[in-house]
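Q: Protein A?
A:
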Amino acid sequence: MTFVTEEGLLLPVPDGDGAPFWEYAARGELRVQACTGCGRLRFPPRPCCPHCQSFDSEWRLMSGRGRIWSYVFPHPPLLPAYAARAPYNVVLVELADAPEIRLAGNLVAAPDAPLDSVDPARLRIGAKVQVAFAELGGIHLPRWLLERT
């Protein structure tokens, strides 16, 4: 498997600890690793709980709702494939049902829309979002859509 799309966009490199995250994403599910010893959620996934040192874990289903905690418009984009899409956003989303978990991604107009599909003026800290998954290079990436209010 390659970790760069034909267009030159970078893809995540799943490892053994994070593989279940990507398997659930392929099913359209946002799941977060949880320690079965103390019940605390953790992200990114790792073999040992940083709180109680247990090696036992499970993957808990999240609602997929959250809010924009932070965002940035990369200037200048470092790779040519991204420069062609500028200005695009990168958001950090705080999960509604797990505020201690924040996931990076892009705010887009639709799951398969380009990275620059949302007007930069529409981004606001605290804006409510919902996860959507887009297949890119064989990996289902979580992307974020503004919730309709």
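Q: Protein B?
A:
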Amino acid sequence: MSISILEQYLPEGTLPFLKKWFGDYVIHIRITKNRDSKLGDYRKLPDRSHQISVNSTLDKQLFFFVLTHELAHLIAFEKFNYRISAHGKEWKDTFREMLLESIAVYTPDLKPIIIKFSKSPKANFMASPDLVRYFHMKDPEDNFDFVENMSVNEVFLYKNEKYRIVEKKKKLYLCTNLNNLKKYLFRPLAKVERIIADEKKQ
């Protein structure tokens, strides 16, 4: 993929960093359709080149963040000869350095969130509530929401089963499965489907 095509997905000012990070590596960048299971991924190909994919639907700043995440895998693996865990200390240190090096790319309201995140980079984007809240854009046409935005006694669907929120316990939400009456804990940013009023009466 040419730089000109990649550039349309990126914020201004990112190309100098990418040219430096790409170095002499042979990297195939794939811009994919939206994937619910992941925002991007990295793999080394049999011919020793590298492939990185990123979802095309991401906000430009998030696209750059995800691309940086995947490039950090490449650079860390190459530096340590693949003798490291995928999201271990070496990757975290590499990702942190890249985020702070390119911090000027992000908008003023996002910079403190990126700096906070860089202190202990998470493998999963969903594990960073501040980033998820910043980039989350709820579609008014659907009933999906985060558990933290719901109230005690509200009922929701998760994996086709109904739950009722019982109480908030520290950072988690205690919920009752209405099918088997067992209790389960949900993360605040678990994405669930609200049940509309007519369904509650059934």
